[in-house]
Request: fold
Amino acid sequence: MKLSEIKGILPTLENVEFQLENGTLVPEHFHLTEVGQINKKFIDCGGVIRDEKAVNFQLWNADDYEHRLKPGKLLHIISLSEEKLGIEDAEIEVEYQSDTIGKYDLEFNGKVFILKSKRTACLAQDACGIPSEKQKKNLSELAGNQNTSCTPGGGCC
Reply:
């Protein structure tokens, strides 16, 4: 989800709620401790130089049970971040504490924001010699020569 998308969704909500993919809700008294832009410049294993930008939200579960982040307040924080930091309209990456700091993509299911697990991947599979995914075939669909096929009790195996 891009920053522009969340800015369009927030005015339609009464509350800001986040949920992990497994259904676990982020406690409603979470704090949004950071909004920023992450710029990542790197070289992949195929030698291609890449630039990535993401808008970063960091959620923190505090013992402040009276705290609730309302949609208007989040919109204000986003606006301030755009004005003061020059944040661009990029994909949102959410940091949230699990065993370590977890990084998540963000989606919206019509009611709550879903923290979607991120996965690593090779960006230069053709340069690394990683074969493309093989097409799966059903053995019963393979046309075989009956003369070269083994049969039970045929003595060929």
Remarks:
- The chain has a mean pLDDT of 88.
- The first strand starts at residue 18 and ends at 20.
- Residues 59 and 96 are 5 Å apart (CA to CA).
